Amino acid sequence: MNKVFTDGLSFALPLLIIAVGALYSEKSGVTNLAAEGFQGVGAFFGALAATLLGPVIGNGNQAIIYIAILCAALGGALFSLIHGLLCIRFRANQVISGVVINILAVALTAFFTSAANSAISGNASNKFVLDVSTRFTIPLLSSIPWIGGIFTDMYPFEIMIAVLVVFLWYLLNRTRFGMRLRACGENPQAVDAAGANVNRIRWIAVMISGALCGIGGICFAYSMIGNFSPSIYQGFGYLAIAAMIFGNWKIGPTTLACLIFGLAKSGGLQLCIAAKLPSNYMDLFLMLPYILTLLLLVFFSKKNHPPKAAGEPFDKSKR
Amino acid sequence: MGDYIVEMRHITKRFPGIIANDDVSIGIRKGEVYALLGENGAGKSTLMSILFGTYEPDAGEILVRGQEVHFHSSTDAAACGIGMVHQHFKLVEPFTIAENIVLGVEPEEKRLGVLPWMNMKKANRQISELSKEYGLEVNPTDRIGDVPVSVRQRVEILKMLYRGAEIMIFDEPTAVLTPQEIDFLLQIIDNLRRNGKTILLITHKIAEIKRIADRCAILRQGKLIDIRDVADASTQELADLMVGRQVRFTQEKTAPNFGEPVLEVQHLTVKNEHKFDVVKDVSFTIRSGEIFAIAGVSGNGQGEIADAIAGLAKIADGNVILNGKEINDLNVRERCLSGISYIPEDRQETGTIPDMTLQENLSLREYFREPFSRKGILKQDPFRDYAEKLIGKYDIRCAQGPDTILRSMSGGNQQKAIVGREIEEKSRLIIFVQPTRGLDIGAIENVHRQILEERERGAAILLISLELDEIMNLADTIGVLYRGEILKIDSADRMTTQEVGRYMMGVKEA
Amino acid sequence: MFLSRRLTGKYASLWVSLLAILMTLAAASILLLAMGKNPLIAFRSFLQGCGMIPKENYGGGSGMLTDLLDFLNYLAPLILASLAFIAAFKAGLFNIGIAGQMLLAGFTATVLVGYNKGLSAVVAKPLVLLIGLLVGGMTGALIGWLKYRFNIHEVVSTIMLNYIISYLTGFFINNNYVDMMTRNSKVCSPDSRLTLTNIMIGDLKCKIPLGLIIAILIALLVSFLFRKTVLGFEIKAVGQNRRCSEYTGIRVNRTILLSMGLSGAIAGLAGVAYYLGYTNTIIPKTLPGMGYDSISVALLGSGAPIGSIFAAIVVSVFQQGANYMSSTVGVAKEIASLITGILLLFASCGNYMKYKAARKMQLAEDLRRTEGKEAKAL
């Protein structure tokens, strides 16, 4: 039971930060199906930084993880500029742009991972091997019955993400910047008339989105996957978008949706282990989050209210 | 010339394909109500958008309080004390009234010394006070999505006042209001003038200019035609200047010749997605040769009635009967084929497929049957022949004939195409929703003439319009809609504009 | 100005595609130069790998023709996959799940027909096609149904289905059909394959891709559908303006279902052409990369069915020639996907290019008009 919470959270929180990333972009009026690509490329930059720095500051030094997270955020933001360019500047169809970004991300990271590896070690491997982040347990809290698992074997990034999400909620809902950002997604003309620069706000939102997705990606690489390889693309970005949709584009409910995904995933896995099924059957349980997503979408999609202006490029001359 | 608070000199503004303003010069004195009169597309809104900083002019200069200014955005204009109420309100529906007002000038404070924080409580209080001061009462915490159009307009005015605007631009402010609300608005404007504000009023309604404006500039096709003192100019004179020729104000209408009932709507109820009754127990009958007009303020269920008859909205309760037969269970196509034509409110979103060619758009009611197609295979010639016939008959101007992409045509010609396509079906019932929205006077006359011709042919016509003048001019019978209910149905010649206006605001039998 | 005129003219889409290819080649050249390689040699190797230019030497039983036939064998499913994307795209839907639909159809046909040794070629091959059509079509229709009935965005639902299909088929392959040597699924019987193998042409051992015939046939059919039929017209109408289609009396839900079903069915054909033609085996838990390449192809072909045949050739040259290029030039073969990705990036800017060109033309026109006016005034 404890294991369910421990693993569930370590999956749910990176998912959450990606979902909040997608949410920032969509709230500003830029449809974001590119979360999958953002998180992969972000993770690539983080892992690359870790691989390069490893020998310099000593392998196993946990500080590398924080540098990697920072680089993942920067890398995700950098890559998101392409989405911004296509959607904001070139007024391309934002759904197409998202798909383009995702395809490009897979190709880019695959190519440059092997290119970087052959340059560093002479071996054109398609993965960066990463240390697994250390875990810690909060005393007292972890011995609470039932939910003690939440505070057992935590990754440090879980705390970081939790704090970050609270801050992001505050930024979106209690500050001038957040209010303008939300207004851009509903009625950009109103923001323009109020004297703010719609496209600048959207650019910032998309870059925040890229950075947050990048953080999510590197956290997956450092926990669940344990390396950076093409297996970073397992549809987590799309799961996060689904979570955002159930959450009706609100941070609170989105958090809940991510927790449900996380617990379903770890719960299924523990069930599989408890039932002593052969390892082949693991695949069936790995399907659970995706099936759950489809089912939840069936029940919750109909009544959703996406930001009204999402998907439409801002045209000043249009009234 | 030194007493002008705003001077615009030799302003020229080009957009791809058109010259919106061609060497226009105007000067406005402090404390006056200055009207800009012109048809749709005359360049009034562009000129004011330049003054408000939305566009930068290609040539010319702007002086405010004698100083030359260069506005790059509306922020610059706002800093000079210029505010604007746009024709299409710039409001964010899920936000509260107060949030909308402060957007762009948010009251941000520092909490704990570092964290920026918006103090909405303070803003709510300030806005409450401000609204009382100018007689524009609103509840700052209501959501914009929940309040009626007239309140939204007050919010737009409060936005300007909150920013301390001295020069206020109103773009077609009365287009969406009832006569009583218009009276109220004109009083507010008068009040603002007495408080020392300078008002610029964009309008194509001469009556309003006569009532409130001091001076008036007339624009036509981007050029300044004349500037007149309103007191010295007659209505007819202004109208002729605006259009550039003699204007007939009303269409000649033949005596009514009603036949048997074509459309009977009985106890119709339509729900929206929140299960809320947007149309409540509505009943009316339209006879052949009759124009039945539904008057009402925007958003009171007009569109839903039309959609329910055409089959686009689900009927929650009640019956729609066409030619004596109930059609509740028929789908859209079957209803069309049994004799309904429908000119919808939104040309580009509903009425046409803008990226298809004119010929395809003109054939949208026909393509699926012979001679346009046989056994699911499309033929080529019938499309072209039909399009050429309609282009000639309805005078649709198009650059590349039937192959013109619809989007590239002007709004007026798009509307001609829709009206032509629908009338050509020779249906027993024709639904017109806002048929003249955004058209210039010539095109409006044209559409009105076509409506009357169809009436003479013996069609039953359902006319839904927000323009009360249009309804008073054309209708045989008027039904007034308020919050989804029809409050009054009566013959048009027994009702005055004022009466209709009262019902539009929900006042029952006086 | 030359370009602007081309980009606003009748063949604008063709020019956009050509421009996108040129820009991609330029970008790829820069990349190769940065890695210290000669781009011209690299591009030549791509073509050599596809049997379009002769290589310096060939092994026994192989030659330029065998390379070319291998290339066509790869091309066939790619054309089909891009047609599948187009069928949904015309209705305004993004079938990102082509990979999953291919895998499910290929898996079902492999299990039902490929492993059934008793069927003769005459029965087995049509049966494979039929299963491809049905399985793919039903998956596609399911996505369409989820879209209109529950408002589930097709991009999300197709991706979810992709993973579900990938894990599910992976589970069955690992449990029942795995070849212990290769770790992939066991190969199909030759009678069920859509590629005829070991055909001797001269002294060359060749593969004859029957899938290519089907691909070209379907391309012609899809082209006919969208140019000449009522259904095609309705699908396009729904894709361009759903609200107006409803107003016109088109049954929008039925149209969405049909076009997604059609898209899935063609994807199913692509799947059988890929798994029972090109590869002859299934790698468990791996979606075919072709599912995404098909999007590049469709966008490069501006959504035109016949155009996508040519676009597919361009993309196939990179994907299929990558191995040989990698061995001669020494650049990782992943560069093929990167080039395809860049191609996709430029192709998706097509509308912007057209828009810019149209603006430029308009400005020039305005200038001419004002100058003309001034000349008159003088």
Query: Regarding CATH, which class of the largest domain in chain C?
Result: Mainly Alpha
Total domains of chain A, how many? 1
What CATH architecture label of chain A applies?
Orthogonal Bundle
- Quick one: CATH class of chain A? Mainly Alpha
- Oligomer kind: heterotrimer
Instruction: Write the CATH fold name of the largest domain in chain C.
Output: ABC transporter involved in vitamin B12 uptake, BtuC
- CATH architecture grouping of the largest domain in chain C: Orthogonal Bundle
Structural class assignment of chain C: mainly alpha
Q: What's this entry about, in short?
A:
The complex is a heterotrimer of chains A (319), B (510) and C (378). With 319 residues, chain A is mainly α. Chain A contains twelve helices and two strands; from the N terminus they run H-H-H-H-E-H-H-H-H-E-H-H-H-H.
Strand-helix topology:
The complex is a heterotrimer of chains A (319), B (510) and C (378).
Chain A: H1 2-27, H2 35-57, H3 63-89, H4 94-120, E1 128-129, H5 156-174, H6 176-186, H7 188-193, H8 198-225, E2 227-228, H9 236-246, H10 251-274, H11 282-286, H12 288-300
Antiparallel strand pairs in A: 1-2
Helix pairs in contact in A: 1-5, 1-8, 1-9, 1-10, 2-3, 2-4, 2-8, 2-9, 3-4, 3-8, 5-6, 6-8, 9-10, 9-12, 10-12
Chain B: E1 4-15, E2 18-29, E3 33-37, H1 44-51, E4 59-64, E5 67-69, H2 74-79, E6 82-85, H3 97-102, E7 108-111, E8 115-118, H4 120-133, H5 149-162, E9 167-171, H6 179-194, E10 198-203, H7 206-212, E11 215-220, E12 223-229, H8 235-243, E13 261-271, E14 277-287, E15 291-295, H9 302-310, E16 317-322, E17 325-326, H10 332-337, E18 340-343, H11 347-351, H12 358-362, E19 373-374, E20 377-378, H13 381-393, H14 411-423, E21 429-433, H15 441-457, E22 460-465, H16 468-474, E23 477-482, E24 485-491, H17 497-504
Chain C: H1 2-8, H2 12-34, H3 39-49, H4 64-89, H5 98-114, H6 121-150, H7 154-177, E1 195-201, E2 204-209, H8 210-228, H9 230-240, H10 242-248, H11 252-279, H12 290-300, H13 305-329, H14 335-347, H15 350-377
Antiparallel strand pairs in C: 1-2
Helix pairs in contact in C: 1-2, 1-15, 2-14, 3-13, 4-8, 4-11, 4-12, 4-13, 5-6, 5-7, 5-11, 5-12, 6-11, 8-9, 8-11, 8-13, 9-10, 9-11, 12-13, 12-14, 13-14
